[in-house]
TrEMBL record:
<dbReference type="Pfam" id="PF01370">
    <property type="entry name" value="Epimerase"/>
</dbReference>
<dbReference type="InterPro" id="IPR036291">
    <property type="entry name" value="NAD(P)-bd_dom_sf"/>
</dbReference>
<keyword id="KW-1133">Transmembrane helix</keyword>
<feature type="domain" description="NAD-dependent epimerase/dehydratase">
    <location>
        <begin position="184"/>
        <end position="397"/>
    </location>
</feature>
<keyword id="KW-0812">Transmembrane</keyword>
<comment type="similarity">
    <text>Belongs to the NAD(P)-dependent epimerase/dehydratase family. SDR39U1 subfamily.</text>
</comment>
<protein>
    <submittedName>
        <fullName>TIGR01777 family protein</fullName>
    </submittedName>
</protein>
<dbReference type="Pfam" id="PF08338">
    <property type="entry name" value="DUF1731"/>
</dbReference>
<dbReference type="InterPro" id="IPR010099">
    <property type="entry name" value="SDR39U1"/>
</dbReference>
<feature type="domain" description="DUF1731">
    <location>
        <begin position="430"/>
        <end position="477"/>
    </location>
</feature>
<dbReference type="InterPro" id="IPR013549">
    <property type="entry name" value="DUF1731"/>
</dbReference>
<feature type="transmembrane region" description="Helical">
    <location>
        <begin position="103"/>
        <end position="125"/>
    </location>
</feature>
<keyword id="KW-0472">Membrane</keyword>
<feature type="transmembrane region" description="Helical">
    <location>
        <begin position="49"/>
        <end position="82"/>
    </location>
</feature>
<dbReference type="InterPro" id="IPR001509">
    <property type="entry name" value="Epimerase_deHydtase"/>
</dbReference>
<feature type="transmembrane region" description="Helical">
    <location>
        <begin position="137"/>
        <end position="158"/>
    </location>
</feature>
């Protein structure tokens, strides 16, 4: 076996490790997506085959029919990879970096086969036998790679089994408080919250009109749903009973540079302005507008309890939310009931804050941020969907409404509960000074600051949370 062949194998290993940890674990988080159970099974089988190949090629030369068995393993890997490609296309949308990486892996694997198959066929022509060959560092490296591949395979199989145990709550039962058959327009319909809301409304027999900016994401929304890419596509005589405005640039996926801040604000203000313009030209006005906001409206208040009547402290989060709520206010002048939903940290395994914590916590690397004393006001995603439906069905509910569970927790308690639920320690504290140096205002407001928010309006109107405690929420989603 030549140096070129071992070099190509090393390149394949590096690209495979990058694909596994960057894509599968950290960005796509396949281990927590029930839709990816079969993909994880394919990954697990392939990793076990890789472990076998690394051990064989690192320590042995096999002859006769044994060499043909290695050829059979290589062919099986190709078949599994093709099945994996099909499964990925059917079950999820791959990011561009993953598609590029897969293409490079396929090309490099082809080059490996071109060099390896002649060697194996030559071995197959010889009498049956096995020779132990110690190749120094190459044999040691091959052993390490075999152990790593086997561990990844065990991880894939364990995650697959866990996903099989995770309970899935039917979406249509979340909006049972909404009577009749409503036509609801949703902006941000392919997002973490919007997609679940659309599925819930559609499953319950309501008519959903979903505004999507990227047509490729349309497959995320189960039928029945009417898809539009611009509000201008809606005629003036379109009957719409309610609008839920959730669209906006994510605030937690990058540092708050000046350009990022401007994009975060403009994406919300511009879309809300378009919604108001739509309402103005509709012949029959919708009954209500549920417009997004966040508990960042209150600013940073340390331990003070905050209800809808609380005042605000100036910071970027307040500036953003205040502008967002102001942009929705003209709809009131058009006779539409407006609710500004001040949403806390939304918990779920398909998106939101907690998904960024699952991988480090699962590997035992989680812990509090800074002092851990900052408050985290959270809400489980399905409770948020239920609250949106409840708000839509409650005519006397208007203005700001806190969308948080009744029992906020400190960051230390949050990390403790997450570690307990995953059966992992949560002791790796990240210093606040380090977070501030790296993240600036992003870290100050989203990671180290916090709000102790209570949902007074929802509770006073009789709304009942299914998950009042963090432990209940984690046990439901994890």
């Amino acid at each position: 076996m030549t140096l070129l062949l071992w070099t190509l194998i090393a390149i394949q290993i590096v690209m495979g490790v990058f694909d596994t940890f960057y894509h599968h674990e950290f960005t796509e988080r396949l281990a927590w997506r029930p839709s990816q159970r079969f993909e994880l099974k394919l990954h697990g089988i392939r990793n076990m085959l890789y472990a076998l190949l690394f051990l064989l090629l690192g320590w042995l030369e096999v002859y006769g029919v044994l060499a043909l068995l290695i050829v059979a393993v290589l062919i099986a890997e190709i078949v599994i990879t093709l099945m994996d490609f099909v499964e990925e296309d059917l079950s999820r949308k791959l990011p561009p970096s993953e598609r590029i990486n897969h293409t490079l892996l396929a090309i490099n694997y082809g080059a490996i086969l071109a060099l390896l198959l002649p060697v194996l066929l030559e071995w197959a022509m010889q009498p049956f036998g096995v020779t132990v060959v110690y190749r120094g560092l190459l044999s040691i490296a091959a052993t390490a790679c075999a152990v790593g591949a086997a561990l990844c395979g065990i991880r894939d199989f364990a995650a697959m089994r866990r996903l099989g145990r995770m309970r899935s709550v039917p979406a249509n039962g979340l909006v049972d408080k909404l009577p009749g058959r409503k036509t609801v327009l949703i902006t941000g319909a392919t997002g973490f919250i919007g997609s679940r809301l659309a599925a819930s409304l559609g499953g319950a027999g309501h008519h959903v009109i979903a505004l999507i900016r990227t047509p490729a994401k349309a497959e995320m929304l189960p039928p029945p749903v009417t898809l539009i890419t611009s509000l201008d596509q809606l005629a003036a005589d379109t009957p719409i009973d309610a609008i839920v405005n959730l669209a906006g640039e994510p605030i937690g996926n990058g540092l708050w540079t000046e350009a990022k801040r401007a994009k975060i604000i403009s994406s919300r203000i511009d879309m809300t302005g378009e919604v108001v313009k739509l309402i103005a030209r509709l012949e029959r006005k919708p009954e209500m507008l549920v417009s997004g906001s966040a508990i960042g409206w209150y600013g940073l208040w340390a331990d003070q309890v905050l209800t809808e009547s609380a005042k605000s402290h100036a910071c970027f989060s307040h500036e953003l939310c205040a502008a967002w709520e102001r942009a929705a206010r003209p709809a009131e002048e058009l006779g539409v009931r407006v609710v500004n939903l001040r949403v806390g940290l939304v918990l779920g395994t398909e998106g939101g804050f907690v998904t960024r914590l699952l991988t480090p916590f699962e590997f035992g690397l989680g812990g509090p941020l800074g002092t851990g004393r900052q408050w985290m006001s959270w809400i489980e995603r399905d409770d948020l969907i239920r609250l949106i439906a409840y708000v839509m069905a409650t005519p006397d509910l208007a203005g700001p409404v806190n969308a948080t569970a009744p029992i906020p927790v400190t960051n230390a308690k949050f990390t403790e509960e997450l570690g307990r639920c995953l059966h992992r320690p949560a002791v790796f504290r990240i210093p606040g000074g380090l977070l501030r140096r790296v993240g600036g205002g992003f870290a100050d407001e989203l990671l180290l600051g916090g709000q102790r928010v209570l949902p007074n309006k929802a509770l006073s109107r009789g709304f009942v949370f299914r998950h009042e405690t963090l432990r209940s929420a984690f046990e439901a989603i994890l």
